[in-house]
Amino acid sequence: MNRMYAFIYPFIWIFMKIFHPWKTIGMENFPEGAALICGNHTTIGDPIYVVMALGSKRQIHAMAKDEIFHWPVVGWILKKAGIFGVKRGTADVAAVKEALRILKNGERLLMFPEGTRVREGETSEARAGAALFATRTGAPLVPVYIQKKKRIFRKTTVVIGKPYHPAFEGRRPSPAALQEIADDLMNRIRALGEGIE
User: Fold this and answer.
1) Could you tell me the pTM of the whole model?
2) Which of 16, 60, 75, 176 has the lowest tally of Cβ within 10 angstroms?
3) Which carries the bigger pLDDT value, residue 119 or residue 154?
C-alpha cells in the first residue's frame, strides 16, 4: 500500500464529496489483481473521478504527462503517490518499462487511450499503448466511462465495464492488430456512456 496515496486520499475525498460528488455503476465488474483501467478523457479531473469511484482500498497507478512533475510540490506529491510521467510524442522507454513493471507486479494502472483530453466536438483516435501493455502482460483491460458533462455540486457518473482479454493471432500482435484492439477498447468505453449525460 502506497502511504502517500493513503494519506492524501481522505482530503481529496472530502473535497470531491462536497463539490464534485460521483456515482459509481458496475463496481461488481472490477477484477482483483493486475488490471489496465482505460477511460475516456474530457477534463483534467477525470483521473480523480476514477480514483474516487474505485475507493481507497483499490489503489491505482496512473500515467500522466511529464510536464506536471515540474510543478512545485504537486509534482513531488504525485510521484510519491504512484503517478509516473510519460514524455508525449516520443518513444518513452522508461515509462513503458514502468507500466509493464506495475502490471507484472499484480498492480493496477490507469490510462487514457486517447492520450490527451478530447473536448466537445473534437474527434480522436485511440493510441495503441494500452493494447500493447495488455498483450505483453496478460492483464485484463477494464473499460471505464466518465460522464463528460460535470457540474459542481451534482453527481458525475463513472461506469465500470466488464474486464476482458483482447484476442489476437500469433505470439505477439502486429502493429495493425494492436490498433484494432485499441479501437475496439474505445468503442467499448463509449458504449458504456450511452444514455448518460
Assistant:
1) 0.91
2) 176
3) 154
